[in-house]
Amino acid sequence: MDIRPAAYIDGAWHNGDETVTVTDSADGSDVSQVELASTRQAAAAAEAAHRAFGDWSRTPLDERRAILERLADGLEGRSESIAATAAAEVGSVMAFSERVQAGLPVRVLRSTVDVIDEVETEEIIGTSRVLGRPIGVVAAVTPWNYPLYQAMGKVAPALAAGCTVVLKPPQLAPLTTYDLVEELEKAGLPPGVLNVVQGRGRTVGEEICGHPLVDMVSFTGSTAAGSAIAATAARTVKKVALELGGKSANLILDDADLDRAIPNAVRYFLMNNGQTCAALTRLVVPRSLKDEVEERLVAEVNAQVVGDPRDPASTVGPLVSAEQRLTVERYISLGLGGEGRLIVGGLDLPDGLDGGHYVMPTVFTDVDPSATIAQEEIFGPVLVVHLVDDEDEAVEVANNSPYGLSGGVWSSDRDRAISVARRLRTGQVAINGASFNAAAPFGGFKKSGYGRELGRHGLHEYLGPQSLQFHD
Length: 472
Prior knowledge:
By secondary structure, the protein is of the alpha/beta class. The protein has helices at residues 39-57, 61-77, 79-89, 94-114, 147-161, 176-187, 201-210, 223-234, 258-269, 290-302, 322-339, 372-375, 391-399, 414-421, 455-460, and strands at 3-4, 7-9, 12-14, 18-23, 30-36, 123-125, 128-134, 137-141, 164-168, 194-197, 216-220, 239-243, 248-252, 280-286, 341-344, 362-365, 382-388, 403-404, 407-410, 430-431, 445-446, 449-450, 463-469.
């Protein structure tokens, strides 16, 4: 079994003193070993990024553009390998892994290149010329559910803006980081501009988020971890961008096309086996449609094939780890204990799936909006259904959440759907199942965090305005 090094600092890999084993989510077998960086190496990575910042921030925009374009081409050429890695690490079924785990990072890179000229955009306000200046050294801390995409959502705009980066990948899914570094080297990125430290959040993560030479922290993960990181960063007055948890509502209005809405609702709550912060895990349904919606949900869920993510027939794979499986099972037990009425799924598994971290797609209905399974992020293949009497109650239930990351609205009247969507306190809303847009701003309200990623809005997170005043 190969052993991957712990830290990439100033253009060279360095070994660590400790290793962890990356396991296959489908059967628990060993995939690779990864060395963990020390806090000393994390500090060295921040120092390397600081040294590289001056030259990189002055690099002509066309050179930065060309590097990102070559990186996009390089990652696209490795898409098959990247998809296979994500299937093993995360449990993403191959069709999803190819389209999202491997394909979306390339789309993010290309959409960043499309807006890179924003970096040099100037605004005249009276006697002032306002410029965007790179924020400095960025600590990027990413989660395990979309390892390469989440890295690209931070690294691409930071590099485009002229910032340098210290990246801490997720411990459970660290392997695509090595693909990223190799392709960045081929693309011609100078040493020190991107540095990587593998390790635990409580050690190397805390070190880079609190390091005095780091100017900004961009974090994606749980709300609890994000709150702790923001507190650490505040001690040295850093800018912070947080993309945190979600418990997003999908509203089916009384005139919705159920032939389209229900299959889409199932796909959205099962996205990446439910391991998605923006998954639509609450379905808000008119009481008058209760029986028909429940019947359709059961049929659609029963049509899913739970199995090895590398099997082309599988539509739902395993969860990332045994710990995550146990967490999801505890929430299902709460539902079975009285928080909802089970209509499909539960704790039983089909024969032959006891070697991996599998959970059956599960739907509870008649769930009170204040129930634990309706309020807390489960991060697994579990959907809760709320029944409402009218549109106003649907909006009230949707907004009855500590989170505000995503959402959906279904209506045969597009203007009505948009009107309802504008009343939701959430960062993005899919109207009638519209597709994700990698150029539009992504982020949330309330405990889902602050700041935005992707497109021009994500690029501007890494630029600070500078005003130059002139005489009339």
